[in-house]
Amino acid sequence: MLEKFAAFQEYHNSFPNLVFHFLSSVLQIAFAITFVIEWNPIYIVCLAVVPFITDAVGHLLEGNFSEVMEKNSEAKALNVADANPFLNFLFKLIALPIAIISREPKT
């Protein structure tokens, strides 16, 4: 699992990209909860579509969108880490806090 997280981190370096990936997982949680409460199938669609939109914006901001798309198509995978959807979801949640904690303090 650590090698998959290292592969994930290789293509997720900028703060805006990490924020958009974190937002992706948070929105998925929100849509899942809303689906259970409202029982409206539109939230299932949102649950599936949100990661593609937010992740694309994050990679466009980082400037590695085409590289990530090429890597995904070569590996025939949905993510560069070739992680299952649940692991990818967790990677998105933990990458931002790890980046914030490990950041060098400004002097």
Tell me, rounded to a whole number, the average pLDDT: 93
Query: Structural class of the helix and strand makeup?
Result: mainly alpha
Q: Which descriptor suits the 3D outline?
A: globular
* Radius of gyration over C-alpha positions, nearest whole angstrom: 15 Å
Q: Quick one: how many beta strands? A: 0
Helical content class:
over 70%
Number of helices: 5
Low-confidence stretches: none
Report the sheet with the most strands, covering strand number, pairing sense and barrel closure.
none
Distance between the termini: 35 Å
What is the string of SSEs from the N terminus onward?
HHHHH
Roughly what fraction of the amino acids lie in strands? under 5%
Topology summary:
Layout: H1 2-10, H2 15-38, H3 42-62, H4 65-75, H5 85-101
Structure explained in plain terms:
The structure is a single chain. The chain is mainly α and 107 residues long. It is 77% helix and 0% strand. The chain has five helices and no strands. The longest helix is centred in the N-terminal third of the chain and has 24 residues, at 15-38. The chain starts with a helix and ends in a 6-residue tail after the last helix. The model has no long low-confidence stretch (mean pLDDT 93).
